[in-house]
Amino acid sequence: MNPELVRKYRPYPQVFLPNRTWPGKTIEKAPIWCSVDLRDGNQALIQPMSLDKKLEMFQLLVDIGFKEIEVGFPSASQVEYDFARVLIERNLIPEGVLIQVLTQAREHLITKTFESVKGAKEAVVHLYNSTSILQRRTVFKMSRKEITELAVHGAKLLKQEEQKYPETLFHYEYSPESFTGTELDYALEICEAVMDILQPTPKNKLILNLPATVELATPNIYADQIEYFCTKMKNRDSAIISLHAHNDRGCAVAATELALMAGGERVEGTLFGNGERTGNVDIVTLALNMFTQGVDPKLDIHDMNRLVDVYERVTHLPVHPRHPYAGELVYTAFSGSHQDAINKGMHEYEELASGRWAVPYLPIDPSDVGRTYESIIRINSQSGKGGVAYVMEKEFGFRMPKTMHPEFGKIVQALTDREGRELQLDEIFAAFKKEYLTIKAPYELKSFNVVKRHISDNENGSHAEIEATLLADGREVTIAASGNGPLDAFCSALKKDVTGDFRLSHYDEHALNGGSSAKAAAYIEIEMPDGTSRWGTGVDTDIIIASIKAVLSSLNRLKKGI
What is the pTM of this model? Predict the structure, then answer.
């Protein structure tokens, strides 16, 4: 960039708040949530939602647990007006859910807005007008006094219209639009002027919504503005301080979190941060941030896949694959070191059974939001042995010994390098099967019998005699030997009559599944006199046969040099 261009800009002024308290606070409870997906989120779309799509989105928001939903701007378009009417006339608003409608401080717009909610048991009418220095100067060319008169006149009209609809309990919200670009003393002045007209009480509070309509500064400044406002205002107990952050600087979530510490009680935002320009605060991220800190967000986000599916369908906007908590890849690790750490962390979490989530690289348990462990680790050329081992265990039940991980990891690495892409899970298993389970040459077991077995309590130990038939280099061979167990006897027979000397250096086994037809997996590493070694794997319902197959798997791989 041209360095001279920076001269066009200046830092946003600090708030003089020497005794600020918010930095020492934490978020201890969920705010009042208000979804504006059907208003801010809708007007941000290239193709606004149809009536049917609005109804689907409304139902999703209700299912998630929103108790306040801004359903639109009824005076702005017929679809917005019709939607409010459909909700009321079809009795689609559940008990305990408040709908909210937005209007500018203009008489004909306020009149139509009240008409749109006729017959509702309760409703929030949200009045706003712009108050920022820039808007007053360049758009309205009006003084502070004139802007205040607009807001006061609008508030008086609310009280007048209310009288026409005695069947409805009305609540009110006022927003000094572009609050963050407004002098703080003036923001207080205009809000208190509106309060003087609407006369809220501690039992019927006015929602004072203080929007960062354009995000102009770092999140700490928004927090300072909110704390300043909260500590200076009159009748604090008769107001609910609402936050409405936009994301122009990419800091809406952080700004809202700090502003909650500073005294905010209510949050307006959208699912996944949809909204005009760079969007509104992302309520999904904000709520799950609280969740990871042990704070109940009071929203039900257990089925993330459904949220994403409905959102993408009704908005025609994609959820980014790296979107916090919701993206397709956010519970996925490709890096080998990350995969290994996750694998170990998952094992420790399951073994300790403490109930406390603590897994490297995963701030949240994917299953808490309806995601599965299978998506955590995916395999490409960046992956390592730990990730491959994790996939084999979680997807296919093979708990390979740790010392076997590097060998199979290299096999998969070579495959990803050759393919030049991410491997599918069945491709990983196919590679395992090809390398360890289906190789039949030069040695293949045809039959195996334990001829005699003697179990002794003396120091000489147990004794077994075996007889087996093999195909060895295409010819049938019968071998027999004795040893301190069937596996030892089989290895002795092989060394004597077929392969020559070798050493069984590692052995491991485990059940693959449960039930009467349970299979077992055996893993054996064999080392030859020259120091070369390979792992072999065998699977069978009989653990002894599985072990014999594992020996032959290893010897076959050694013989072929793979």
Answer: 0.75
